[in-house]
Amino acid sequence: MKKILIVGAGGFGREVYNWIKDSQEKYPDWQVVGFLDDNLSALKEYNYEVGVVSTISEYRPQDDEYLVMAIGTPQIKNELANLLRDKGAKFETFIHRTSIIGKNVEIGLGSVLCPNSIITCDANIGEFVTINCGSGTGHDASVDDYSTLSGQVDITGFAKVGKRVSIGSSACVLPGVIIGDDSVIGAGSVVVRNVREGSTVFGNPAKYIK
């Protein structure tokens, strides 16, 4: 039996907890034993069978413990993944039972694919990528390390999303478009041309606002 600790006890962490429980038949050897969060009282107002067992900074990995990353903000996710890996922590990849994964798809360690996510075929998902409910990629697309797709995001064929990119709900990246590292795509945006690194774009069509 693998003891699973969820990194982050905020809203997304609570969602991931429920989705792991919902996928128990797919992961019969997983037992969620708690959360890691620097706010030890993060679950005080919620009724969960397990609680926050340690702060992230004070966590000391055990041989039978595995972590699932439930942090949405890409830069924080990157920082915490590095911190925990340096401690010797081991991560798992979680793919919800309703996700659809096509042929020739690579999914990196530590990524989380939420309910009804779709990776069609011949696509690459990096490490610690978050693909939220109803989101996905088309053929030959890629999403690089630590990026986060909010709900109902459509990354179409041959599009490339860089590292630590945050894409808001219901955004669409058109075929072949390249999104630079550390960019932010606003909710509902339609990205029709390449986005330079470190930029923020919003709208239909998406325009630079930072």
Automatic annotation (TrEMBL):
Q: Which Pfam families match?
A: Hexapep (PF00132), PglD_N (PF17836)
Q: Can you tell which superkingdom this protein's organism belongs to?
A: Bacteria
Which GO molecular function annotation, any one, does this entry have? acyltransferase activity
Which residues are named in the active-site annotation?
Answer: H139 (proton acceptor)
Residue span(s) of domain PglD N-terminal: 3-82
Q: Could you say which residues are annotated as the site Increases basicity of active site His? A: D140
Question: Which positions does UniProt annotate for substrate binding?
Answer: G72
Q: What is this protein called?
A: Sugar O-acyltransferase, sialic acid O-acetyltransferase NeuD family
Q: Which organism is it from?
A: Tepidanaerobacter acetatoxydans (strain DSM 21804 / JCM 16047 / Re1)
User: Which lineage?
Assistant: Bacteria, Bacillati, Bacillota, Clostridia, Thermosediminibacterales
